[in-house]
Amino acid sequence: MAGPETGVLAARARALAVLRIRGTAWAAALLPAAVAVVLLVGGATGHFGTGTGWSVARWSVGALAVVALLLAALVTTVVARARPALSPSVPISEKSAPDLYRLVRDLAERLEVPAPSAIALTPDCDSWLEDRTHRAHGPPRTAGPAGGEERRRPEAPVLVIGSPFLWWMRVAELRALLAPVVAGTGPSAHPDIAAARRFIRGLDAAVAVSARAEGPLRRLPLRFVGKVARLLLRACRDHATIMERGVAAAASERAQDVDYGLRIVAQEQVGLAYAGWDRLLTRVALPAWRMGRWPSRLDAGVVSALTELSRRDRLAEGFTSRLGERPACDLLEEPGAIDRAASLLAARLFHGGPAEPGPDWSPVAWNQYPEEVVDRKWRLEAARLHRVLDDLPPGPAAPTGTAADAAPAPSTVAGSASRTVGPAPAAPSPAPPPSHAATGRPSAASVPYAPAATRTDESGAPGPGPTLDRVIERLARDDQAGDLVAARLGAEVEREEREEAARQTTLGARAQDAAAGVAWGDGLVEGGLPLFPLQPPRTGRELLADHVTAMVCCAAVDTAGAAPGLDWLDGPALLVDGARRSDLGRSVLSLVDDGDAAPLRGWLSTVGVRAEKPVRLV
Predict the structure, then answer these.
(1) How far is CA 403 from the centre of its chain?
(2) Alpha carbons 500 and 506: distance in angstroms, whole number
(3) Which residue in 473, 481, 427 sits closest to 450, CA to CA?
């Protein structure tokens, strides 16, 4: 039966193959120099001739040797000095999590492997070991007794743990889950495997450096380095893959007898955690991020999301009974502060937000989410929808007596919804635009909507106000209005996203200029995009449906006593009489896709929404 030693031997064999490739590359670089030395020594000792041909050969080979040595020195210097990429994570000191460090050390002692040198958290549902022994990742070397630099002692890799695991899993489950991961420190300490990994990481870092080279004096030599590094990576690829498989197999075999029954339960929790985490990010966090707000307790929210998922999913019945046991986040001294740091990192990775909170990138607590995110999101989308409708060409005339004809034309967004005989009441002044600290970063979508009193239609009457009737009538009466509005909404949203991407690129460049060296793992790539975008771009029809839904929700809140709410799995929700109404989507799609307003009219009548009343958009 194969044991841990078998996997280590297989990994070591592949590591030696990688090192042989490195040796072959060095031999190829030194070969011209060796030939030049032979020719020079042979000429000096009289073993070779002294004619013109031999002189030309010696000079030619000597020049080739010098060029080869210079190029080899260039490649070696870049590979050795290039800073390998690190996984973005939140470092956890032993002072802030002594119980967690104690658990990991006890686990390593039981597995008879070196303990990880440090622990870090990542906003993802995964855990791994990461080598951070490169001199660019550690403190500078100190002076030794003889006056020279003291060599740093080799360190074990860092244990990176998915932050959702600490909040959802129990302590025993986390221990069982980490057993095969911690067991990997044993094979990682093998000199041949460690050397092969350092070589591959150096090549990968050199490729990244060559891709970022700027200026002709740097671009040309670094482009050569990049080509050589890619060639060596292709030669090492298969050996490196099989080496890592051998390391994983050895670690799994070593951890086989540690909490085996709990490992099965823990793996079940991994799948559940991944599902709930994905829903929390895409449905709950993403709407806030797009507004310049970031939920500051994502990991605490994942517990609520997974509890709700357990309640809805029959396969997850009984999982909530685990919540009575000690959660793994109790191993942290200040779980709230660490959750906040992990939440900010998640926003940078999945959305591309700034590295630090500020007036236009502020945190939001879960109890503030419905009012400051959901309601604000609906108002902004409804305002954008009406701006697009204002710019559309006039559509077919509405039949006499329709609700659209009866809709008033208020002079302000929050103006009176009815006209009375006699002196007109004073129109309430519109609310001032919210500050950036309260609403997030400014954008085109945050510009308050106010129908211009000077805008008139063909009859000379003022343009229609922000009423739900106006939206419904236009989409139901004009067959081409849906396509026009969808296209213009898509163009406006795309423009806003381009502006935000340019802004993030500028912020990232400033942060990189302020940092020492190259800023790795900052959550941004070229163009200011996130490393791991959560959703593909939305189509125009999807945007139209979202905006119409937002307009309906605004009308329900303003005229029917509804309220914005938060669903842990679906994000923004409309609450009517304290209960979530999830049947609005079908009625909106009937209007958007088929131009049929009857289902939506019926829904509005059931809830008691006054579609002819103007709504507040800011």
Answers:
(1) 45
(2) 10
(3) 427
